[in-house]
Amino acid sequence: MTTPSDPFVFPREYYFPPFFTRQTNLTTHHAQLTKWSSLILSYCRHHRLFKISLSDFAEKDLFFNKQLNRRLSLSDIREVIDFMRKNDNRAEYADSDQKNGGAGKDGAGGGGGDIVWIYWRTPEEWASLVESWVEGTAQKGTVLTVYELTEGEGTRGTEFWGIDQELLLKALQILVKRGKAQIFGQEDSLGVKFF
Amino acid sequence: MFLKQIDLTTALRPSYLPDEDLLFVQDNVGLYEGKFKLPNQQNGQVYLTSHRVCYVDKAEPRKYSVALDLKDVERYEFYAGFLKSSPKITLIPKATKRSSLQPRTPAHVSIPSRSGNSSPAHRPDGAVRVSPVEPAPVTTATWVCTICSFSNPVPSNFDPTTANAHTPLPPCLACGIKPTLTHVLKAAISNATSRQPSSPALYTPLPVRPRPNSEYAGAQASLSGSPTKLDAPPKSSDPEAAFQCPRCTFHNHPSLLSCEMCGGPLISHDLPPELTQKARADTDSPGPFLNSIAPAPGRDNLENIKLSFRRGGEKIFYERLKGSLTQRKWLLQGAPPIPKSSRAGETNGTDPTSGVDGARPRPKLGGIAGLESRSQHIRKNNELVIGSAFEDLEALMASAKEIVALAETFARQVKGAGGSSASENALLAESASQLGLIATKDIVGGSSSGGESLYLSELARTLAEFLTDDRRGVLRKAGGIISLVDLWAMFNRARGGVELVSPADFEKAANLWEKLELPVRLRTFKSGVMVVQGRDRTDETTIKALLSWMKDLHEFPPDRDVPWDWHMFGRGVTAMDVAERFGWSIGVAEEELEMAEERGVLCREEGIEGLKFWENFIDTGEGKEYKKAARSREEDSIVRALKESGFL
């Protein structure tokens, strides 16, 4: 899942101790949330993380600055995630998705989950990426398996190579809705036909 | 001028003279001069003190506040008010004040003005000179020196009804021998009694000088037929008619103001007002000699000040004015000290006024015996002062100054002996000096509803003075900011246990500071803590001070190694650090830090070391979006609400 490459460069705020305390001033708090969400997104993009477990990551360097010995508490992390969900839909609780069928976006009921989708690219963005790749490689009308899209030789080098299957399906569903693709097949061997 | 510009204290109150006591305060008072309102002095507070009547304007206190010395007041009249006309108290200046204008007026102007164009019908033009009632009006009462028989004027401030043995009397102008009190008293009383019948009714013939060319002399005189006391028959045909001096009967030239022979004044001062007014109206020329009691309107040299009480309080004011004009405290200034024990007749003889004591020879003692006897004297004297002071309240008021001085020395002695709690003794001594400074409910007047607010505003001013007083430096010692509770305790202690202020009144008064534009202000922090600080100390200046200090922390390395880049971020500070640095109490420091955080200047860090505050490096512009969004949300909601209610 992770690509070992040059280490992630944390922004300046990451070394600022008050950054790990929830701010009471609303304006400052807003700025704090904005900074945290952009940090999470760039961190996930750097490490190609599509979904994270909050309880896991609370101990990892994203939320725990070992140098300063300061950490962002789990409740504060959830607040950031909520903020990301509401702003531009950059995150989503994976388990609530299953329970409510994706309808629990604005409800507070989504706060319980541990696994969170981090959409450094939203499903829509992924969908258009796949679509433009299909067009670019003149594969309209052909049938591709999901495995081929994520792990195949043909897609190596594209952005969605190695994408989480579930996330890819979310993106493909969007294409289906637009009438640009059709999904068929069983659970483990799904095929996609692009129009 | 009768009205004088005055100095105000920082709390916009008149600054009192030494020994001056505040007697009464009333708001909503306007000033009149003569019959006309003074345009700039129509709404203000009037302070009656033992020496003055001060008017402090509400709108422009520094510009239009004036005062009037009670010693210049000849008479005062009370007008109870009628329908829409407010009750008024008229203060009439002393004649000496007015007649001081005389020498400046050329004689040739005055003559036609007085005798020129008045209607002959009313004039006994028979060139009779009515002798001014003997021996002339009150201001020119004379007493004849028993030594050299020189006739001296009775001092203008001499009032036979209140004079006593201690009223200072001027010596004879010729020989310098002091008159006895009874002598002057007699002269003044005989003068007053002879003036009594000079009511306007009996006074129909004008006491003016003869008009040069009068033809109707005899006819008019017989027509008028009034009970006039005629002087020697005038030489009516003589245009340069001389007239007699009322005192020595010397015939003077008409243009002279005082008798050539005896120096007695030749001008009558107590013309009946209605007549002089008529004359004035006819001639249109100011007749400065005829400064009447009721002056013609619009002449600024004829001052006659009315205080118009638009919201009550006139009765108490009148009573206290009467009291202070009777007491005449201003005479005490520079007068010999209160006679020590006139009753006991036994003092140490330091008092020059009491002749008995001065005559008693004091045994000359030296060495320790002398010191002992001296201290014994002093003790006895103190005993007497205290004893007589408490005999009745009037006397206490009179000897307040001495009692205060005594209290201070006692306090000093206690301090010297005990030496335990020096600060408390200092406070005691201080509180003694506070006797004159307090605004009590008793002093402040006003009718039902107005009274309370006036009391509060006076209390607010007193507080502001208390706070800004440089000698005490209450605010400065507390780092420019003090909590209201601390101030309340301090203030009531300074009052020395009398006339304590209730917390509710105190808070109400503190809330008035802003409205009264006083140099201190009350601030309520988010948590509800109320503090007092100078008006010039705003949140901005506090933040500036905090920030500049935090900027310094970027330069100076912290005490121990820190994991973060202190060059970039400086370090976090606790409320304790701030309190230490700025001399605030910790509570105040916390509140100030939170205020700065509220403004987005600082941000917080909660850690194991407690709550620390940092410069805000989190919000580097992102917050603006939020504010914008919040504002637009607000606007949207307003628009929506308007739409819903059908306005749009």
From TrEMBL, chain A:
Alphabetical list of InterPro entries matching this protein: ESCRT-II_cplx_Vps25-sub, ESCRT-II_cplx_Vps25-sub_N, WH-like_DNA-bd_sf, WH_DNA-bd_sf
Subcellular location: Cytoplasm
GO biological process, one term: protein transport to vacuole involved in ubiquitin-dependent protein catabolic process via the multivesicular body sorting pathway
Pfam families in the record: ESCRT-II
GO function terms (MF aspect): protein homodimerization activity; structural molecule activity
GO annotation, cellular component aspect: ESCRT II complex
Key words of the record: Cytoplasm, Protein transport, Transport
SUPFAM superfamilies in the record: Winged helix' DNA-binding domain
Coiled coil regions, renumbered to chain: none
Superkingdom classification of source: Eukaryota
Gene3D superfamilies: Winged helix' DNA-binding domain. Chain C. Domain 1, Winged helix-like DNA-binding domain superfamily/Winged helix DNA-binding domain
Family: Belongs to the VPS25 family.
Record-linked PANTHER family: VACUOLAR PROTEIN SORTING-ASSOCIATED PROTEIN VPS25, VACUOLAR PROTEIN-SORTING-ASSOCIATED PROTEIN 25
Protein's name according to its UniProt entry: Vacuolar protein-sorting-associated protein 25
Organism, as annotated: Podospora australis
Automatic annotation (TrEMBL), chain B:
Bias (Polar residues) ranges: 191-201, 344-353
Ranges for domain GLUE N-terminal: 6-337
UniProt entry keywords in alphabetical sequence: Coiled coil, Cytoplasm, Endosome, Metal-binding, Protein transport, Transport, Zinc, Zinc-finger
Membrane-spanning segments: none
SUPFAM superfamilies for the chain: PH domain-like (SSF50729), Ran binding protein zinc finger-like (SSF90209), Winged helix' DNA-binding domain (SSF46785)
Region (Disordered): 94-129, 191-238, 332-368
GO molecular function, one term: phosphatidylinositol-3-phosphate binding
Record has Secreted as a keyword: no
KW Cytoplasm (keyword) present: yes
GO BP of this protein: protein transport to vacuole involved in ubiquitin-dependent protein catabolic process via the multivesicular body sorting pathway
Example of a GO cellular component annotation carried by this entry: late endosome membrane
Subcellular location: Cytoplasm; Endosome
SMART domains linked: ZnF_RBZ
PROSITE patterns to which the protein is assigned, alphabetical: GLUE (PS51495)
Protein family according to the UniProt entry: Belongs to the VPS36 family.
Function: Component of the ESCRT-II complex (endosomal sorting complex required for transport II), which is required for multivesicular body (MVB) formation and sorting of endosomal cargo proteins into MVBs.
SUBUNIT field: Component of the endosomal sorting complex required for transport II (ESCRT-II).
Identification of the protein by name: Vacuolar protein-sorting-associated protein 36
Organism field: Podospora australis
